[in-house]
Amino acid sequence: MSQERTPCVSIIMPSYRVSQYIGEAVESALAQTFKDFEIVVVNDGSPDTPELERVLAPYMDRIVYIKQENRGCSGARNTAIRAARGRYLALLDPDDIWEPNYLEVQVGMLERHPSVDLVYPNATIFGDLPDSGRLFMDLSPSKGEVTFESLVSQKCNVMISVTARRDALIRAGLFDESLLSAEDFDMWLRLVHSGGRISYHRQPLVRYRRRRGSLSSDPAWMCRNVLKVFQKMEETLDLSPREREAVARQRVRFRALLSLYEGKKAFFKGEVKAALENLTRANEFFKSGKLRLACFLLRASPQLLLRAYHIRDRFIIGADTKY
Fold first, then answer.
1. Exposed, middle or buried by CB within 10 Å (0-12, 13-18, 19+), for 273?
2. Measured distance CA(123)–CA(199) in Å, rounded
3. Is the per-residue pLDDT at 311 higher than 90?
4. Cβ within 8 Å of residue 93, ≥6 positions away
5. Cα separation of 160 and 171, whole Å?
6. Using CA atoms, how far apart are residues 173 and 274, in angstroms rounded to an integer?
7. What is the pLDDT at residue 4?
8. What stretch of H or E contains 297?
9. pLDDT over 70 percentage in the chain
10. Which residues have C-beta within 8 Å of that of residue 176, sequence separation ≥ 6?
11. pLDDT at position 211
12. Mean pLDDT in residue range 68-89
């Protein structure tokens, strides 16, 4: 990690409102069994900068610390990538935690497979949402080869804590700073469409934090941004007929998902009419008996439906799923 030599790996950490978590993330990076790395932390105009810098103070001689005006996660990652000196880039979100052998396994795979540009592992989910304790690939599976079509169709889902060849991400054009979310999804699509190769394995090397209040925990927000990515793919890439058809199918599906999540959000806000309109629109695609019943109860007795939801959360799921 000496500044006088070129490290093998640059660990990329964009930081915004993460002062309560980032210490654990940095400690997990420093505890790696593979030692040839640098840590690049970019403070993306964070409003909690005094606290962030207090937490980072013990590590300042072991990290590269950059401050910039707020440009979003993509802008922070791009700044870190441009400053990085390693031939490999390892993305570590500052509210996640690596297992000690993360870099050893990830770098080993890239070293053994020179044709692979990016590799992602499995992860163990933790935090304050109901899926805590489950594996990422149980909820977001990866099956078969990672291609443009398998990414679009979600047969393969890339876990954000990837390790990649720096030149591959640069060739793909870095992260799109116009996207406020799903910027990673956009990057993976562009990477494979330009001829890059993505691989994966099922060893859980990351503790992936999911928490209430984060943008990624809002499914409606995520759907809207995924739809923006699909529109961008159609407008900017030279898609084959099969690829264009795959994008069109998923746009229909994500519009239905957006209606579903907007309907649930309206329901919990007491906006019965908006909830009914959205859920009815969603069920034109899903054709679900449960959704049909929910729409019937919304018309007949919204309070009965709300009580049923509370009972399900308390006695069947054992967690609050109204987010």
1. exposed
2. 15
3. no
4. 13, 14, 25, 160, 161
5. 19
6. 40
7. 64
8. helix 289-300
9. 92
10. 74, 183, 186, 187, 232
11. 79
12. 98
